Amino acid sequence: MIYRRIFKTTYVVPLKNVFDTFIDISKPSLHKDAHEVSNDDKPMEKAQVDSSAIGKVSSGSKKTSSKAYNILSSPEIVAFSPSELEVMEVGSSNSNLVKNMDATKTSNMISFNMNNDASTRQHTDLQDRHSFKENTSVDVGTSMISEAYQASSIMAKKPRIVIIGAGMAGITAANKLYNSINSNNLFELCIVEGGSRIGGRINTSEFGGDRIEMGATWIHGIGGSPIYKISQQINSLESQKPWECMDGFSTQPKTVAEGGFELNPTIVDPINTLFDNLMDYAQGKLIESAEKVDFYNLATRAFKSCCTTRNGVSDQLSVSSFLRQGLNAYWDSMKDDQEELKGYGTWSRKLIEEAIFAMHENTQRTYTSAGDLLTLDFSAESEYQMFPDEEITIAKGYMSVIEHLASVLPPGLIQLGRKVTNIEWQPEVEQQSIVMENGHGSSFRPVKIHFRDGSTMLADHVIVTVSLGVLKAGIHQDSGMLFNPPLPTFKTEAISRLGFGVVNKLFLQLSDRKGDEDKFPFLQMAFHRPDSELRNTKIPWWMRRTASVSPIYKKSNVLLSWFAGEEALELETMSDEEIVEGVSTTISSFLSQQPHKKLESNSHELCSNGMTSEVKFTKVLKSKWGNDPLFLGSYSYVKVGSSGEDLDSLAEPLPKTTSTGSDSCESNGGSVPPPPLQILFAGEATHRTHYSTTHGAYFSGLREANRLLQHYHHYVGIN
C-alpha cells in the first residue's frame, strides 16, 4: 500500500491548493490529474525501484517511543512536479508511524493514509470533490511507477531543502528548520536516509538483557552540553532497565601484565599520571602551577626535543612522537630513584612501564579513532574542546535523544531506504537554462539528486551530512564520484588530508556464573610488544592493541572491549567462534588459577580474582562501522598533514562565495552568478573544535539550518 501525507512543509500543500495538486495513488492503477496535460508536457521516463534499497526499521534496533519519528519506508515512486520532471517518493505506511500528532499541527494539514479502510474513509470527501482520470493499469510488484502529472499553476515555488542523512546533524537541522518556519509556510523540507533507520552513528540496542550503544556512547562533559540538556528535559537519564556504564567508573581497574601478574598501584599510578599530564599538555589544559610544575617542565622538554627543524621549518609533530619523548624524559628523570622489580618473571620495570604506557595509547586510539597515534596531529589537539564536568552515558539510550528531535517532524518528512548515488550541482548557470515564471526564475532548482533506485529529486539547497568516510570515497573516480561536477580543489584536498578512522565495540555475554557476577574485574591488560620474544604466541595480534575487557557495569554478565584501526577492521571479518576463541585465550592468560600471594610494594600477585582462568561466553555482538557503506568508518580526527583549517574548509558551503558575498565563480559569456548555498555540509567532521562528537554534529546541524534561515531572512523576515 501507499502511504502519503500532505502538509505545510515537505510534501506540504496549502489547504486551498490541496485539491489541485493531490494525486490519487490509493489504487494499483495510475491516475492523471483532472487538469489536461499539454502536448509539450512529455511523460517522464519510468524509474525502476531497487527493492534492495527499500528499508524497514530492523527488528534488532531499539523500537520507537510513543513520540517516535514519522518516516516513509519502503519507498514507492510518484510524480510530484511535471514542470520540473522530477521523481519524488511516497512510502508505504508501517507500524512504527505514529499518528498522535500535535493537535495544532494536525489542524494545519490533511493526512492521506491509504493503508486501510479507515484511511479510505479519510479520503472519501476529498476524492468526491476532486475528479481523477484513471491511466492504464500496470503490474507494479513491490513498487509503483508513475508518470509526471500536471500540477496546479497556482502552486508557487517554495525553496526546497533536502537533507541527506538522518543522523544527529541531519535530524537537528530539520528540527531547527521545521520549528522555525512552520508558521511561515516557507520551505519544502525532507530528509533522505540511505539506511533502514534513523540515528546514523547513533544506534542503541540490547544485549544480554542490558541496554547498550553500538555507536556513540558518551556525553562528553555535562557542563554546557546540549545533549545533556535534552536528555534531562526528556527524562532519559534514568531507566528501570540496566544500561551500559550506568555506574560510570565506580569499579577500580585491575591492571594485569601478560602472564597473569597483577600490578601494584605504586607501579601503575605514576605512569597513569604521566600519560594524563602529557595529554593535558597536548590539549592545552596543563598550566604551569606549583603542583604541576614537574610535569609541565617534563612535557615542555619533551615538546622541544621532538620539534626538529629542516631548513628552518618545523616538521609537523604527531601526538605519538610527543608522548614517547615524554616517556623518555620521565625515565631520564627517574633513573637514579627507582629500584628494580622482583617476582615478575621476565618483566623488568622499564618493560612494565612501557606496557602500561602503551595500554593508555591504545585507549587514546579509541578516543580519537586514529589507528596509529603517529598519524594524529599534535598542534590540532589544543584546538579540540570538551565540556567540563563528568562524562556519562544515557540511561534510556542515545536513540532517545534522536527520537525526541525527530518526533516533531511530520509524517513523511523522513524517507528511509533512499541511497544517494550522485549529486548534480551548478557552479555555473547558463542564462537560457533558467525557466522564467511570472518574471522570476521560480521553476529552476539547481541541484539534482540521483538515487540508487533510479529516481531523482530536484532541490534548491542540499545539506550533506554523510560521514567523512563517505566523502572520501565519493571524491575518487574508482569509487564512483558522488558530486557532479566534482567538488572544487580546496574541498577535495581538505577531505583527503583529514583523518577518518574505525572504532568498533565488542560485546560478549558471559555464561551464568552462579552468584559470581561481580567477580569479573575491570581488566586492564599490559601486553609485551607485538615483536617481543617474551610474548605469549597464543594471544592473537588483534587482541594485543586493545586496552581492556570489563563488565559494562558492576555485576553485569556483558563484557565490553574497544578496538581501533586495523584490529577493528579485522574484527568485522571474523566469525563469532574465532572472536570467542581469541578473547578467551587472552583473558585466560591474564587470569591465573594460582593462589594469591602477599602483595608488597614492588612485588605482585597472580591474578585470579576469585575466578578460574577458564572464561566461557554464550553470545557475541560487534559493531561494523568500517565496512558499512553508509559510514565507512567511525569518526574524524586531524591527521598529520592536515589542520583545523581543513575542518573549516569542509564546512564551507558551495558555490564558494567571496568575502563581499558575491560568488567567486566568474560570470562571463552566457553565464550568470549561480544560485547560492546549493550544497551545505554538516556533521561532526565539519566542526573545528568539537569534531568526533555527537554534540559537534548537533552544533553543525544548527549552523547550517541557521545559515539558510539567515539567507532567507531578508525575504520573509524570519527571526
From TrEMBL:
Coiled-coil segments: none
GO molecular function annotation: polyamine oxidase activity
Cellular compartment(s): Cytoplasm
Residues spanning the membrane: none
Biased composition (Polar residues): 656-670
Classification via Pfam families: Amino_oxidase
GO cellular component, one term: cytoplasm
SUPFAM superfamilies: FAD-linked reductases, C-terminal domain, FAD/NAD(P)-binding domain
Name used for this protein in its record: Amine oxidase domain-containing protein
Organism per entry: Acer yangbiense
